[in-house]
Structures are given as C-alpha cells and as structure tokens.
Specification:
With 150 residues, this protein is α+β, with helices and mostly antiparallel strands. The chain contains 4 helices and 4 strands; from the N terminus they run αβββαααβ. It folds into 2 domains: 52 residues; 92 residues, 2-Layer Sandwich (Tetrahydropterin Synthase, Chain A), CATH 3.30.479.30. Strands 1, 2, 3 and 4 form a 4-stranded antiparallel β-sheet that branches. The mean pLDDT is 83.
C-alpha cells in the first residue's frame, strides 16, 4: 500500500505543471491575438485615410456684396461672404444662391447666438454645408468679409 500512496503524490505535480503550461499557452495566445488585432486596426485605419478622396484644390475666390439681414428682436446683421471655388469648378460661382441661403440661415437668429465664437462657427459650418450642396461641391469654403451686428 505504501507504493500506491506515493503514486498519486507523484502524479499531482505533473497535473499542476500541465495546468500551468495550459494557462501560459492560453495567455500567450490571448496576448498575441490582442496585439495582432490592435496592429490590424491601426493598419486598417491608416489605409482608409489613404484611400479617401483627396481634398479639393482651391480655385478662384468670388466676393459677394454685403447684405443686411433682420435678426430677432429688431436687430440686424450685415454680412459679406466670399466663396472659395474649387480648381475643378466649371465657372466662377454666381453668388445669388449663396446670398439666398445666408439670408435664410441668419433670419430671426438671436443676437446672443452670433456674439459667441461657438455660435458663429456653428452657423457658418451649417451655411457652408448648404452652399456646398447648392453648388454641387464646386464651392469648398466660405469666408466672412463683413460681419456686423446691431
């Protein structure tokens, strides 16, 4: 019986060694898999930026005459806009669409919204997107040449 009692003790360290080996292998696989996944995501992110359409090249800048727009609470905004056309634009953009969109954008806006940089930036961004759409992406940006509130 003494031999039988020692045999299970001899097997116990082997089972514990196997468990440690399995744990180490699983940990290594997880680390390598995580590192590989992270590298894949980084490389994938870089390649999508490379395949994105290049930014349009700037073309002519067309300045429009300033217009006065009624704001809320009997206030006024005098705004002048310049349109930055793309180099691929067929002709210089006619400003009538842009002025109409500007009037629609700013009519009845609160003066307090135009007095903060964030408010002006938000309204300008919205107006820029509307103008880009109206000019079928032949205008890439707008610039304020005049911006006076009263």
């Amino acid at each position: 019986m003494a031999k039988d009692e020692k045999a299970p003790e001899g097997d116990a360290p082997k089972k514990g060694g196997r468990r440690k080996l399995i744990i180490i292998i699983v940990a290594a696989v997880l680390l390598l898999g995580g590192g590989g996944g992270g590298a894949f995501m980084l490389l994938k992110g870089g390649s999508s930026e490379e395949t994105a359409a290049p930014a349009p090249e700037p073309g002519a800048v067309v300045s429009l005459d300033p217009v006065t727009i009624n704001l809320a609470d009997s206030h006024y905004l005098k705004v002048g806009i310049a349109l930055q056309a793309t180099a691929t634009a067929h002709e210089e953009p006619d400003g009538s669409k842009a002025l109409n969109l500007a009037i629609d954008q700013y009519t009845n806006v609160e003066v307090s919204e135009l007095q903060t940089a964030e408010g002006r930036a938000k309204l300008k961004e919205e107006l820029t997107e509307k103008i880009k759409e109206a000019y079928e992406q032949e205008v890439m940006a707008i610039y304020y040449t005049t911006f006076v509130t009263q």
